[in-house]
Amino acid sequence: MATQPKQFGMSSKNIDKIKLLFQEQIDRGLHPGAAMAVYQNGILMMDLYGGVANKETNEPVNRNTLFVILSSTKPIASFCWHILWERGQIELGDFITDYWPEFGKNGKSKITVRHILTHTGGFPQTPEELTAERMVEWNAATTAMENAVPIYQPGEVIAYHPLNFGWVIGEVVKRVDGRNISQFLTEEVTNPLGMKDFFLGLPPEHEHRVAKLHAMEDCESPDTVEIFNRPVSHQGIIPAANGICTARDLARFYAMLSTGGSLDGANIIRSGVIKSVAAIQEEGIDRTNGREVKLGLGFAIDDPRMGTQRGSTRYNHSIGHGGLGSSIGWVDLESRLAVAIITNGVRGEESNSKRLAELSEAVRDACV
After folding, report:
1. Angle, in degrees to the nearest 10, between helices 12-27 and 349-367
2. 334-344 burial code (b ≥16 CB/10 A, e <16)
3. Beta-bridge mates of residue 326
4. Relative to the CA of 115, which of 97, 126, 204, 336 has its CA 20 to 30 Å away?
5. Angle, vertex CA 160, rays to CA 93 and CA 80, nearest 5
């Protein structure tokens, strides 16, 4: 754990409180294992890990343990579009068919880049043909996206696209840039930032490092847990859901956003793009999940799992994203605070939100 409490407003006493709470959650059986990292002003303040990576083998979580972050992958996938947007290679109002003509089948010709980023594209349901075996086949996934039939008009309602979101982003990246989304992320984001333990498409030699996901007693999606425990699901490319990393690397991505798009000499994106991404684009009931949401461009805004806002400026938003019943990554742009909390215990919405909010709130309290 690296910390400079006096300079960056986080006292050693408050750090100790967070460490105790982190361990208490493991001791209370809220999850088998977890990792948590906190940056403030671009400095790594906390790097915590504990519990077991696999209940069957009792293997402990260590500093190098990797976690499947599920939908916490989405902002990092969407960030590829933000880079292309900054470079003038895509525009928010452009139709997806401007880059991918075949996508326009079955009434999807008017879906725009903005619609995808805000989950208002109108085709939220994962096509039935994309079984657990086929969703890792890129051509099968993109063909399914072309053949998908919307259930809402574009821009009509917010309806979370659990997996379709990522396949559309990935295929547009490939058609515009020429690189697949995994290569694009590696070369444009993760390598420059020193995020050596973030993977979208895990190399097989790192498989032994991955913590097993465990469906807890109130888990609402045990079948999904089993799908994303498979090595084939780790090693394929599912841009909305199969990012694998340490909490340290996930927090580092948000730390880059917190410092205006540059970190430790790596200039990734302009600060003005980050402010645009963080602005509220959509607000209302998500038809897929039945929840009240605020959405930016590829990010959730002020999710309760991120704790309670403290500031008062125009850009006083926390932006980030959660992963199915298990994780959260977020940044508070005003306080330049970046946080990642990842567990391998997948819980129901209520208990998951409570444990993640508890830790996020403790971090905010430590920084005031």
Report:
1. 170
2. bbbbbbbbbbb
3. none
4. 336
5. 50
